[in-house]
Amino acid sequence: MTMPIIALVRPISQSIADCQLTHLNRQPIDLARARRQHADYVTALTNNGCQVLKLPQLDDCPDAVFVEDTAIVLPEVAIITRPGAVSRQPETASMATALQQFRTLKHIDQPAACIDGGDVVVDDKTIYVGLSSRSNHAAIEQLAELTGPFGYKVKGVALRDCLHLKTAVTRIAPGVFVGNPDWYESSSMPGQHIEVDPQEPFGANTVELDGVLLRAKEHPASNQRIADIGGNIVTVAADELAKAEGAVTCCSVLIHG
Fold first, then answer.
1. Active site includes 162?
2. Is 250 labeled as catalytic in the residue annotation?
3. pTM for the structure as a whole
């Protein structure tokens, strides 16, 4: 019997309008609408094989709904990150409390190191880390030390004009990626690369579930490109959370059985 994927999520903070922004201009965020979209996202996870566990709401942490940035979960171990935005570092404690029942925990704790989970794409035994404003070489070095005993190699990927590596590219199957070639070098990540539609620069972000690819419905042309190569696409509305530089991967931490 296949074990369900555990999906850790967190309710949207009352203070989300004060979120960190790096590449977008600040726009008003409709909190009620954002919460409806998040609820639909949670329903989509549940309907596609996930057991959803909710972390406590953190109203003093505007970005806390974007739980992905606080942890990197591998089959053998979970790494608690040190987010690049100092205001986000208090989010990690409750993530660690939740994860410790599923994985042995390691921590990015070198003072010079910072890394967001949104900068991490894992393909088999290679961990790609985006060199962004939120993740740096010191964290890559420590991540390599922590995961090397399990056979992983860690490789930095240069980024341009985007917040995280998963803004630019995500994995949709072993050795298969979907990405915006303007924001990363595909040659840094060996495999097949499907380009997003040029009119949908944010169309790469994808949650890879068992047999299902969960994506934002706001990128229909890119969704069709993935469907054309056999991807089983499920879509949710995510445009309100996108105003906070969030996307579908940002809103969950997945633990595969």
1. no
2. yes
3. 0.97
